[in-house]
Amino acid sequence: xxxxxxxxxxxxxxxxxFIGKATQEAAKASGHWDHIKVLDRPNSIxxxxxxxxxxxxxxxxxxxxxxxxxxxxxxxxxxxxxxGTLRILEWCVNNGASYTGITxxxxxxxxxxxxxxxxxxxxxxxxxxxxxxxxxxxxFNAYGAxxxxxxxxxxKILPTFATEAWAGRPIPIWGNGEQMVDxxxxxxxxxxxxxxxxxxxxxxxxxxxxxxxxxxxxxxxVLDVTESKAGKKYLPMRKGELPGIKICAEGEGWNLLxxxxxxxxTKIQEAIVWYxxxxxxx
Length: 282
Prior knowledge:
Elements: E1 9-13, H1 18-30, E2 35-39, E3 57-60, H2 74-95, E4 98-103, H3 111-130, E5 134-139, E6 141-143, H4 157-166, E7 171-174, E8 180-181, E9 183-185, H5 186-196, E10 201-207, E11 213-214, H6 215-226, E12 232-235, H7 254-257, H8 265-274
Parallel strand pairs: 1-2, 1-3, 3-4, 4-5, 5-10, 6-9, 7-12
Antiparallel strand pairs: 8-11
């Protein structure tokens, strides 16, 4: 597979999630697919997969998210993130479809990281054992308007910082805030996933900008944009995280795509403003 490959019907598991919606939009904008099928909820991949019928490529995004949160339900996370991925891989082999998965930098000692690494390795195993065309996108710290926040949702960095700052509460920082993160807009992750679909040699593509900023630096920027005087509060590290680490894309796969996501404070500002309470995000 490569740039000249023709695919007609795309299926996206988890297609109505934060990254899933961006992937739908990127797929539509690319003009490469005649039809786009969406499997919505993470649990759907554990049951009837007939909605995938007719797809010649699957972008697999369905899964349980969270860092410290998944320690409360590790068995369910393993079922969805690992066994669910295995079901999608088997479906692809049995139905002549190719596969793109989403993975992450293996930096945290967390349940989520463990399941994503296992899913990544399973995809490679199915590629070499069954000639399944496989590609993967390594997503860094996604952000953008519409990223869920609050009860029943994992605490993601930008929604948490913005929501607390707009409410006049101190921004919570776990650890000393000198951890370094690579913030990548969700639209760029969606674009990377749709581009990766045309490769099948077990390639991995970095969906990151290659620029890292500290958590403290982001917090100060959020305080500036929101004009909050509440400051920051420092808390003990959460389960599944480590202090003082640097998470940043190194550029794997960028040469194949002839494109990379770009860091921009403007888009970060737009995402912060989206969480302003006067907005209606229902």
